[in-house]
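Annex B. Sample input.
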Amino acid sequence: MKLLMLGSGTSTGVPRIGNDWGECDPNEPRNRRTRVSIIVENDSGQRILVDTSTDLRAQLLANDIEKVDAVFWTHDHADHCHGIDDLRVMRYDRSNPLPGFANTGTCERLRRRFDYIFEGQFGYPTLIGLKNVKDAQLVAGFSFQFVEMPHGPVTSTGFRFEADGKSLVYATDFSEITPQMIKCFKGPDLLVVDCLRRRPHPTHAHLDMAIELARKIKARKTVLTHMDKSMDYRTLCDEVPKDVVVGFDGLDLEV
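Annex B, continued. Sample output.
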C-alpha cells in the first residue's frame, strides 16, 4: 500500500495570499503547501482519494494522477471539498458515476451545495454516486473503518484503510483525542495526522496532540499534515521523533 500526499497545508495554504510565509523559509520547496488531500493506493493500483481540496486540479496534474477509483470526504469544510468539480474529467470514460462516501451530515450538505454533481443537470450525467460510509465495508480493494472526531463545534470523520496486509489511518481536523478514536485507529502501520501548529488550537490538533495520538495508538510511523505558516519544514524535522515524518506536497511513501 502507498500514500501520496497531494496537499499538506491549512485552509489558507502556505504562503497565504499576500506572499505571507510566516516563519516558513520561502527557499525551501517543501514549505509551499496546498490544501490537504491524500491518495491511498493498493498493490493492484486501485486508488482512493480522500477529500477534494480547493487545489485538487493542480495537485492531480503535479502528481500525474488521471483517475481514482473512489472518493471519501472527512467533512464539508471548503478546503476539503470545494475542488469537487475537478473530478468531472474522471467521469468521461466511465459507464457509471464515481463512487463517493461520507457520513450522513456531510452527504446532506454536499448534495445541497453541489446538487449538479450528484443529480446531473441539463443533459450532463451524474458525476458521483454518493453513499453513506456506514453502508459500505469494502471499496476499491480496501476494507475500512471510520470514526467521528471532535472538530471544535462540529465533527470530522477519521478513516482507517486496510489492504495487502497493511493499515493506514487518516486523522485530520480534530481537536480532541477520544476513546473511540483510539479503538478505531489502534496499531496502524502509518498514521497521517492533523498538526496545525505548535500552540493549542480550538478546532485542530497541535504538535503535542498529534504525537500523543501516535503514541496512544502505537503507530509504527507517523506523517504530519495540515500545517500552517508557523511550521517551517526543516526546523520541524529537527524537533520531531525519528518515527515522525514532516509531510509535504508530493510525499510518496510506501506503507
